[in-house]
Amino acid sequence: MSKSKNNLGKYVSFNTDWGFKYYFGREEYKLNLINFLNSLFEGEKVIKDLHYESVEQDGDLEQDRKAVFDLYCTGEDGEHFIIEMQQISQDFFKDRTVFYISRLINRLAKRGVEGNTYELPEVYFIGVLEFELDKLHPDKYYYDVALLEKETKEIFYDKLGFKFLVIPNFRKGEAEVTSYMDQWMYTLKNLSKFDKIPSCLDIRVFGLIFDIGKVANLNKEDMISYEASLKRKRDAESIRLTQERIGFQEGMEKGIEKGIELEKRALAVKLKAMGMTLENISEVTGLSVDEIEKL
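== Transposase (putative) YhgA-like domain-containing protein ==
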């Protein structure tokens, strides 16, 4: 793995808004997205072609919140796919994915007489995440979510699904990469660090990515867009790390203050047991007489 002289890497990174849409969102390169989705569905579905749709979804009313997807496309069998790259963790992320799916389903529902049967198309949300989805499972990097019957674990409704790829939780090295899922995770996480296609990748699936992904081959307009996207990503990462550092420092300070307070109270209890007056205990510990009386 190596870096080019301009420190951008040899290959365009997947992990920027621009890079993600460069590989997956362009009509001329949509084979990449088809291969990606087929790898995720592992034979459950076979996607032969895709059509890109508008990423903006309005509500029924003017005051309704607009949903804007990173990518939205339909398969030739009528399936609908929302594909999102999410770089920064946010509160209620799962709620947001449900909102996106719900908004889309509402728009797809047939109106009038045709809607009397309530028949809906298949809808799927695919999220590529640069943060942990669940801190209780720090090693889980792929989530395949569906509506299940709790007791039998059988699929209750097979036309709705969520698939999440958690990039930070994938820690396999090249020698450990075997399945197509692992190959995609390895590529999504490390592409900008490669200087050639790794031997663990299937060139039939990943060849186009390496053919089009060379930074040196970008035209001037694309290079400007890519560099701007990298800057936004790095700025966001810097802000996140700063917030984590400040939060850690504040937590440490609060912890120290709480520890000192507990020590004062423990000392006050001990001095009370020895028969020292409340006033003297207050002078020694700094606690008020009222506080000491309550101990």
